[in-house]
Amino acid sequence: MSSPASLRMESVTVDFGGLRALSSVSIEIKAGEVVGIIGPNGAGKTTLFNVLTGLVTPTSGSLYINGQARKWPRIHELADIGISRTLQGVGLFGELSVSENLLVGATHSQKPNLFLALFGLNGRTEGLAKERVESTMRQFGISQYGAQRASDLPYPIAKRVALARAVISNPTTLLLDEPAGGLGAEDISWLKDFVLRFRRDRSVLLVEHHMDVIMSVCDRIYVLNFGELIAHGTPDEIRKNPAVIAAYLGGEATE
Ligand SMILES: Nc1ncnc2c1ncn2[C@@H]1O[C@H](COP(=O)(O)OP(=O)(O)OP(=O)(O)O)[C@@H](O)[C@H]1O
Ligand SMILES: [Mg+2]
Predict the structure, then answer these.
(1) So what's the pLDDT on residue 4?
(2) Protein residue closest via CA to atom 6 of ligand 1
């Protein structure tokens, strides 16, 4: 594993036709930080992740990794840069088993290509990948579900498998899009512990509506509203920020 990188996105604007989803947004994740991105529904949080992971090309804006300007990464370059993500909701391959889903994540290609994952490896690499799948399933407490189809899993287990699939490639920067969404108190508590353990030597960018999760694990928080960055600060600063309070009271209230 390489050491975590600092990432900086500067003046990122994304237009979808006439809709400006992000308007000159700048954010930075320093190595080893947990950085939160919050904001009401439709604020542009997932779009920001999509820009950083090659799913959306911004209209304008720049990316710096460890201070060096570079092109926006393409999906297949993410593993080399050390970036991995979960999708909002679950985003597993429903027809595949849990261990097959993890194998896709383990083969260092972020392309959803099971064929490559299973047959594009030589015997030794395949053995290592399978060992890694086993140990990751143990680490996430999901070994007993290994042979189950992802679409048959209870929701909290599916969320945990999605997290395991993102982590198995050993990323140095992990992007989590609403990892606590739909979970109960026990799973949320597990998730908080997971984020705090992970950040001991790596970085996390966390999009979340659960304010208790954001406030208890983030070092710094950025707040988006209608594609604009309206605030940035520590959890305490954000909690008291009038613009943030107004954005949440004016939009959909979240816990
Ligand atoms: N591919 C797309 N094409 C057109 N519009 C899009 C696309 N992706 C997102 N949008 C729009 O951009 C805006 C920001 O969406 P985004 O999904 O980034 O919001 P979000 O902050 O993640 O919201 P939520 O909390 O509901 O997940 C929304 O108005 C959305 O409808
Ligand atoms: Mg979203």
Answers:
(1) 65
(2) 16
Angle between helices 98-106 and 123-139 (to 10 degrees): 120
pTM for this entry: 0.90
DSSP H helical segments within the chain, as ranges? Answer: 45-52, 78-81, 98-106, 114-119, 123-139, 155-167, 185-198, 211-217, 235-240, 242-250
Q: What is the pLDDT of residues 161-213, one digit of tens each?
A: 999 999 998 999 999 999 999 999 999 999 999 999 998 889 999 999 999 99
So where are the chain's domains? 8-82+171-255, 91-170
Alpha-carbon distance 239 to 206, whole Å? 17
CA 125 to ligand 1 center in whole angstroms: 38
Reduce the DSSP state of residue 115 to 3 states and report it: helix
- Average pLDDT over the chain reads 89
Q: What is the C-alpha end-to-end distance of the chain, expressed in Å?
A: 36
Atom of ligand 1 nearest to the CA of 47: 18
Buried b (16+ CB within 10 A) or exposed e, 174-205: bbbbbbbbebeeebbeebbebbeebbeebbbb
Determine whether 41 is exposed, middle or buried from the number of CB atoms within 10 Å of its CB (0-12, 13-18, 19+): exposed
Lining ligand 1 with CB less than 6 A are 16, 19, 21, 39, 41-47, 88
How would CATH label the architecture of 8-82+171-255?
Answer: 3-Layer(aba) Sandwich (3.40)
